[in-house]
Design goal:
The complex is a heterodimer of chains A (166) and B (241).
Chain A (H helix, E strand, L loop, with lengths): L1 H17 L1 H10 L4 H18 L9 H15 L28 H11 L3 H11 L4 H8 L3 H22 L1
Helix pairs in contact in A: 2-3, 2-4, 3-4, 5-8, 6-7, 6-8, 7-8
Chain B lengths: L5 H10 L2 H4 L4 H8 L6 H29 L4 H26 L11 H43 L7 H41 L5 H34 L2
Helix pairs in contact in B: 4-5, 4-6, 5-6, 6-7, 6-8, 7-8
Classes of the chains: A mainly alpha (166), B mainly alpha (241).
Chain lengths: 166, 241
């Protein structure tokens, strides 16, 4: 039993290691600063590990990982204002230093994506990752038609924002 | 003016090296794997565990009161009733704990997951919050019984204004605790509802959310009325000569 658990853990760590890019991208998009990013990474890894036994390998690990990670990012709630320290950064701003290590295009793209709501972020993120409309629809729980309509609007919004930040 | 091509940004996104270079170490990952969840289901669990611990301690406290009031059978029966009540609440809380939407469903689609959290909160967790608020009333009653024992070695007889003061403290304690907890969880659940609204924008069923809100309010009112009446009857039962 112990040996079996150890094997599952090693297998999980290997898979996660191979797909850390997905984790980094999702955490980057849904955070305002490094501290938030670390918290989100922690929560996503925890949820991935807890739900790993139910991963039936009907889909690729990366597909499953996207689902669990996005579910975690979207269902993570903020604490009530009463418990937020005054030094915390307000909702409508982000740490400029946060995206400094990225290329110029990614910095601009991040600023644009940052203005979207959580669901729009998920849709555009999956589009950036080359997922099909069907996959996006299935991950979010929308119809394919709705995804295509929403994507057109989100892209238009992003284009406007990018022009503004360029 | 040249049309902005998003495909260029898509390519930049896919080839951005920093996403692959900023790796977490295995030690860090293993540390995260053992951490405590901060999501809504983690908050539900945390709140239930705290209440189960408090009610267990209260059961022991009432158990000790049975021993202290050893020669007063009526008070012993009252304390036994409280132990039974606390255990009954613990059983309900454990049942609710087992129904928290778990990680078995973590890979379902986002909409279904959000619905399951909101559904759980509306149908099951509101009852748990009411039961949890009952702890503050039990805590006060237990404290009062200790006070009476050490001061008079029995429960002194009550006048009508005593009933009023005692009853008011018990009810206010319950309502205040319920208000704070419901407000806190509602704050989190509202964020999930906003997520659902973002998904369902223009397409689906606003009615479903309205239905949950209605159900939530109805459950809250029913449970609160039952508990307040129950508490008042209890006070009458304890202190009536």
């Amino acid at each position: 039993m112990y040996k079996e658990n150890r094997n599952i853990k090693t297998e999980f760590l290997d898979e996660l290691d191979r797909h850390q890019g997905i984790l980094q991208k999702i955490c980057f998009v849904y955070s305002r600063n490094s501290l938030e990013k670390e918290d989100l990474c922690q929560e996503i890894i925890l949820q991935l590990w807890k739900s790993y036994p139910s991963f039936k390998r009907k889909s690729a690990f990366s597909t499953w990982m996207y689902r669990v990670a996005l579910n975690t990012a979207l269902s993570l709630t903020k604490k009530p204002q009463l418990f937020i320290k005054t030094e915390d950064i307000p909702d409508n701003s982000f740490d400029i230093e946060y995206s400094m290590s990225k290329s110029e295009d990614i910095k601009i793209l991040y600023r644009a994506i940052y203005q979207l709501n959580k669901v729009e972020k998920a849709i555009i993120l999956l589009w950036l990752e080359d997922k099909s409309y069907e996959e996006i629809a299935e991950t979010i729980g929308m119809s394919v038609k709705n995804v295509s309509v929403r994507l057109v609007r989100i892209k238009a919004k992003i284009k406007e924002l990018i022009k503004k930040y360029q | 003016m040249e049309e902005l091509n998003l495909e260029n940004y898509k390519s930049a996104w896919k080839t951005e090296q920093s996403f692959f270079e900023e790796k977490l170490s295995r030690d860090q990952i293993q540390k995260f794997m053992q951490s405590v969840s901060k999501n809504i289901s983690g908050l539900f669990k945390q709140s239930l565990i705290i209440d189960i611990i408090i009610k267990t301690l209260l059961s022991f406290s009432f158990g000790l009161l049975i021993v202290l009031y050893s020669n007063q059978s009526r008070i012993q029966i009252i304390n036994a009733v409280f132990i039974f009540l606390a255990i009954f609440c613990i059983v309900i809380q454990i049942k609710i704990y087992k129904k928290i939407p778990g990680m078995k469903n973590a890979d379902q689609n986002i909409k279904t997951l959000l619905y399951s959290y909101i559904d759980f909160y509306t149908r099951k967790f509101v009852l748990s919050l009411i039961i949890s608020s009952f702890s503050s009333s039990l805590f006060f009653i237990s404290g009062a019984l200790y006070y009476f024992y050490f001061k008079y070695e029995t429960i002194r007889s009550f006048q009508y204004d005593d009933y009023l003061v005692f009853g008011a403290i018990v009810v206010i304690g319950f309502l205040l605790s319920a208000f704070v907890q419901i407000k806190n969880f509602k704050f989190h659940v509202n964020q999930l509802e906003n997520g659902l609204t973002e998904i369902e924008q223009e397409s689906i069923d606003e009615n479903k959310l309205k239905h949950y809100k209605k159900l939530n309010n109805r459950n809250l009112i029913i449970y609160s009325i039952i508990l307040v009446i129950g508490l008042l009857l209890l006070i009458l039962f304890i202190f009536k000569k």
